[in-house]
Amino acid sequence: MRLRNKPWAQDYIHAHPEVVIANPESRKGKWYEEFGNHNPVHVEVGTGKGQFVIGMARQNPHINYIGIELYDSVIVVALEKVLEQESLPNLRLLNVNGKDLTEYFEKGDISQVYLNFSDPWPKTRHAKRRLTHANFLTLYKELMPEGGEVHFKTDNRGLFEYSLMSMTDFGMKLQFVSLDLHANEPEDNVRTEYEEKFAAKGQPIYRLEAKFK
Ligand SMILES: C[S@@+](CC[C@H](N)C(=O)[O-])C[C@H]1O[C@@H](n2cnc3c(N)ncnc32)[C@H](O)[C@@H]1O
Questions:
Q1: Which residues form a coiled coil (predicted)?
Q2: Residue 2 Cα: closest atom of ligand 1
């Protein structure tokens, strides 16, 4: 997702370092100082306009959430939504590339990773850009304690099939797989922007949970 260029986005982001962390490198290994507690940290890579990570932070006040988004024109929409909320002390945003996670986090900083409606990159030559490629799984594993989990939702069947293979080839244990999440939608499911869009068109939503061994 890349919204129309917003020349004001950077200024707006810089004006709100309490939400979009300005120097995330400086928090590496010390995210508990940023949040003021030792609660688990869950990270969504490719957070888009933020509906999921905001909903999760509201639903689970004892978990700290970090939404990571590459484009300032997109994360600024998430920022606006955060600022509309009364108070979300357990949520931060990072305007960075998920491939650089090790610059901002060290082993044990993250206890769970969420990937929602990640860009499918259907061409084989772009497979390394998929957020469920082995290179990304290696990164996530490096930053989580043993037994860390990746939770993934998508409307894209090809990406879902690829991710099932990629994760099992990587030696992860699949704990949950649904080929139609909304056929029996869990009460605590927080829908993302894309999820609502595809569900409205009647498309099935695929979901999995996988654990590093
Ligand atoms: C298709 S959108 C889905 C947004 C949201 N998760 C949802 O479900 O509504 C994918 C988002 O991931 C972001 N993204 C893709 N690759 C990324 C990366 N390597 N690091 C950070 N964000 C990334 C894109 O900019 C885009 O906003």
A1: none
A2: 25
14 torsion bin: left (phi>0), alpha (psi -120 to 50), beta (else): alpha
Kindly indicate the confidence band of residue 125, based on its pLDDT and cuts at 50, 70 and 90. Answer: very high
Q: For the chain, which domains are there? A: 25-212 (3.40.50.150)
- Whether the Cβ atoms of residue 10 and residue 83 lie closer than 8 Å to each other: no
Residue 20, CB-side half-sphere exposure with 13 Å CA sphere: 28
Instruction: Find the 187 Cα to ligand 1 centroid distance in Å.
Output: 25
Instruction: Report whether 164 contacts 127 (CB < 8 A).
Output: no
Mean local confidence (pLDDT), 53-57: 98
Residues serving a catalytic function are 119
| Residue 185 marked ligand-binding | no
- Has residue 169 got a pLDDT over 70? yes
Q: Residues 158, 72: contact at Cβ < 8 Å?
A: no
